[in-house]
């Protein structure tokens, strides 16, 4: 395997593989290095797929073992920033692989970065909790740490007051990127509930290896890791993708995909597939923006647009768009396909002369695509309220110019629930049940911004 050693802003690094258009930044964990075994395995898997991998040593690790700078979060964030700035000069398609502490540094340093895919192994996602745990285990009080600034624990791990303050002042509150996580059930550093909370908050894919540890090092663990990498990459990156308009022959399949994607998500069962069924014949439906996404000639998702309008205080109307349903089959989610479908549709909408899109949805799914709170654009419902779930995207900057606008939704969304029930009764039976996402939907849909 071809490797090239180099130094980036004083940081020893390795680029694995021949020149390629795509690259993964690899960030190692504590007591590891840029040439760690998992990074080597990762590079071996990625190079045949047309990627290079860039790994580097964090302070006090690898070639920097005697670095006078301690491996604090502040130093780590600075180093990761230097690395990605270098990578941007030679690659446009950038992804991330990070382990343990390296994942935590990445969550802080790269929260605004355009990363195509993120793969985390045993990630630290709640550093404050880990520090608090260590302080409890070794009977170190906050007052002691604040007074002494640095405390060496019996296991040799150092606790720093400035590190602790930085962690508390910089919570992980943004991570809108396709992310998959591999976690060991016997991880003794990161509790499973913290990982589950993170995956729910940021819509990540999670794989748990039974009997896996925080540090994947045994043959069984490394084999599992290797297979996991193959599933996350080979199944998603080497396939032919195509976005096109929906055809009549696609109708039944698209409705089935919509049903599968939304089933039990917002309520027990769903009605979105019936909405798709009736939407196509409505006067507000836009067949030009009725799109499907294919992988290897197989439809995996769709997006549908309808015309709607805004009216300002003078009564002037503005024709705009809304979309929905938009969905990706569950097995293809969190791999960037939804992003690609939406971005493509935005370009098509601009080409058709539209300037604004208003939608209702979970902000976590759409703010990374340029949507903002309706209140920031002074767009209300007829009753004058600003729903938290209502978001606006300007396809033409500043086109709404600060005026107060009232949003009028297309009547196509006024679903006859009894008709939807009858329609669903003619399809394959599926179990209706409760799941936590329904409560999240209820909260989001009822929330009003004051």
Automatic annotation (TrEMBL):
Pfam families reported for this sequence: Acetyltransf_1 (PF00583)
Keywords: Hydrolase
Record-annotated N-acetyltransferase domain positions: 241-396
Single Gene Ontology MF annotation: hydrolase activity
Keyword Hydrolase: yes
Residues in the signal sequence: none
Name the record gives this protein: Alpha/beta hydrolase
Protein's organism: Acetobacterium woodii (strain ATCC 29683 / DSM 1030 / JCM 2381 / KCTC 1655 / WB1)
């Amino acid at each position: 395997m071809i490797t090239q050693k180099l130094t980036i802003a004083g940081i020893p690094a390795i680029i694995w593989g021949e020149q390629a258009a795509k690259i993964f930044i690899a960030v190692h964990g504590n007591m590891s290095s840029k040439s760690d075994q998992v990074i080597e395995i990762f590079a071996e898997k990625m190079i045949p797929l047309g990627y290079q991998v860039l790994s580097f040593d964090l302070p006090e690790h690898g070639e920097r073992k005697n670095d006078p700078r301690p491996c604090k979060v502040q130093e780590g964030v600075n180093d990761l920033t230097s690395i990605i700035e270098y990578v941007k000069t030679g690659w446009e398609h950038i992804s991330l692989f990070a382990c343990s502490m390296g994942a935590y540094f990445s969550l802080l340093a790269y929260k605004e970065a355009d990363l195509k895919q993120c793969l985390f192994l045993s990630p630290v996602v709640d550093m404050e909790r880990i520090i608090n745990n260590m302080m409890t285990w070794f009977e170190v009080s906050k007052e002691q740490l604040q007074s002494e600034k640095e405390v060496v624990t019996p296991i040799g791990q150092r606790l720093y007051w400035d590190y602790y303050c930085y962690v508390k002042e910089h919570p992980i509150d943004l991570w809108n990127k396709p992310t998959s996580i591999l976690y060991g059930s016997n991880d003794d550093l990161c509790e499973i509930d913290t990982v589950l909370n993170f995956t729910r908050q940021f819509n990540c894919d999670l794989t748990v290896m039974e009997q896996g540890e925080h540090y994947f090092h045994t043959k069984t663990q490394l084999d599992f890791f290797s297979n996991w990498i193959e599933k996350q990459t080979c199944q998603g990156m080497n396939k032919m993708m195509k976005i096109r308009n929906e055809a009549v022959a696609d109708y039944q399949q698209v409705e089935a995909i919509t049903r599968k994607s939304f089933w039990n998500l917002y309520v027990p069962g769903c009605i979105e597939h019936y909405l798709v069924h009736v939407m196509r014949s409505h006067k507000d439906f836009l067949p030009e923006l009725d799109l499907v996404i294919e992988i290897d000639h197989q439809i995996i998702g769709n997006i549908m647009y309808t015309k709607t309008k805004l009216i300002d205080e003078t009564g002037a109307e503005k024709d705009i768009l809304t979309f929905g349903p938009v969905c990706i089959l569950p097995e293809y989610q969190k791999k960037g396909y939804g992003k690609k479908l939406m971005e493509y549709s935005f370009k098509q909408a601009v080409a058709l002369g539209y300037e604004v899109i208003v939608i209702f949805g979970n902000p976590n799914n759409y703010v990374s695509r340029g949507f903002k709170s309706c209140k920031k654009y002074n767009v209300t419902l007829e009753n004058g309220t600003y729903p938290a779930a209502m978001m606006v995207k300007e396809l033409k900057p500043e086109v709404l110019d600060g005026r107060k606008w009232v949003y009028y939704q297309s009547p196509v969304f006024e679903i006859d629930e009894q008709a939807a029930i009858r329609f669903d009764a003619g399809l394959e039976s599926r179990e209706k049940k409760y799941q936590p996402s329904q409560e999240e939907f209820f909260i989001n849909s009822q929330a009003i911004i004051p």
